[in-house]
Write a structure and sequence with these properties.
Strand content of chain A: over 45%
Number of strands of chain B: 9
Number of helices of chain A: 0
Oligomer: heterodimer
Radius of gyration of chain A: 13 Å
Shape of chain B: globular
Distance between the termini of chain B: 36 Å
Helix content of chain A: under 10%
Order of helices and strands of chain B: EEEEEEEEE
Number of helices of chain B: 0
Structural class of chain A: mainly beta
Largest sheet of chain A: 7 strands, mixed
Structural class of chain B: mainly beta
Order of helices and strands of chain A: EEEEEEEEEEE
Distance between the termini of chain A: 40 Å
Helix content of chain B: under 10%
C-alpha cells in the first residue's frame, strides 16, 4: 500500500522558515517524480513544486520561486520542502504527492497533508 | 500563464447525470486529469489522460476532451459523489502543473 506521511507543519511568523518532510513507503520511491501541492483554507488546489526521480530537474510555481526549495533523499524514501521568507499567503495544507509512474503530471497518490499557518 | 476555468458549483438529483466542464485554450491538445475531494480529506485521482480510470473508480465516471473544453461526466449520480472536483493539466510552455478552480457538486 502506498503511504505518504507529511510532517513539519506548524505556526510560523511572517518572514520565518519551515521545512516540510514526507515519508514515503509501499512503492519504489526513486522511480517516481514527486510533488508538493497546497490548499489554502476554503480554497482550491495549487501546485507548488515537483522534482524528478534523481533530483536533477525541479519546477516551481512562480509565487514560490526563490523562496522554496524541493529536494529528496532516495536512500531514505523522503521528500522535503524548504520554505523561506514565508508570508500569510503561504498558509495552507501542504500535500505530498506521488506522480504516476508512466504519465507525467498525474498526481496519483496524496498524503493527508500538513498544515502550515503563517501568522503573527 | 495557462488557466483552467470550471463552474464554481452545480447540483444534480440522485440517479441523474452530472457533467463538469473545464475550459482552457486548446485544452484538447493536452492531457487532462480529474480529482475528487470530499470535505476534510485529501484529493483522489478519478480520471487521468482525459478518460482513463484508476483502479477502484466506478465506470460511472468518464471523461472527454476536445477543442477548448474537457469534461468529467458522472452517470447515475449517488449521494457519495458529493464533493469538489478539480481538473488539472501540465502546461509544457510554462513547465507548470495547473489546476482548475474546482467545482462543488451537490447531490440534491
Amino acid at each position: 500500500e502506498v503511504r505518504l506521511v507529511e510532517s513539519g507543519g506548524t505556526l510560523v511568523q511572517p518572514g520565518g522558515s519551515l521545512r516540510l518532510s514526507c515519508a514515503a513507503s509501499g512503492f519504489t520511491f526513486r522511480n517516481h517524480w514527486m510533488s508538493w501541492v497546497r490548499q489554502a483554507p476554503g480554497k482550491g488546489l495549487e501546485w507548488v513544486a515537483n522534482i524528478k526521480q534523481d533530483g536533477s530537474e525541479k519546477h516551481f510555481v512562480d509565487s514560490v520561486k526563490g523562496r522554496f526549495t524541493i529536494s529528496r533523499d532516495n536512500a531514505q524514501n523522503s521528500l522535503f520542502l524548504q520554505m523561506n521568507s514565508l508570508g500569510v499567503e503561504d498558509t495552507a495544507i501542504y500535500y505530498c504527492v506521488r506522480d504516476h509512474l508512466l504519465w507525467f503530471g498525474v498526481s496519483e497518490n496524496w498524503g493527508q497533508g500538513t498544515l502550515v499557518t503563517v501568522s503573527s | 500563464s495557462y488557466t483552467l476555468t470550471q463552474p464554481p458549483s452545480m447540483s444534480v438529483a440522485p440517479g441523474k447525470t452530472a457533467r463538469i466542464t473545464c475550459e482552457g485554450s486548446d485544452i484538447g491538445s493536452k492531457s487532462v486529469h480529474w480529482y475528487q475531494q470530499k470535505p476534510g480529506q485529501a484529493p483522489v485521482l478519478v480520471l487521468y489522460v482525459d478518460r482513463e480510470r484508476p483502479s477502484g473508480i466506478p465506470e460511472r465516471f468518464s471523461g472527454s476532451n476536445s477543442g477548448d473544453t474537457a469534461a468529467l461526466t458522472i452517470t447515475r449520480v449517488e449521494a457519495g459523489d458529493e464533493a469538489d472536483y478539480f481538473c488539472q493539466v501540465w502546461d509544457s510552455g510554462s513547465e507548470h502543473v495547473v489546476f482548475g478552480g474546482g467545482t462543488k457538486l451537490t447531490v440534491l
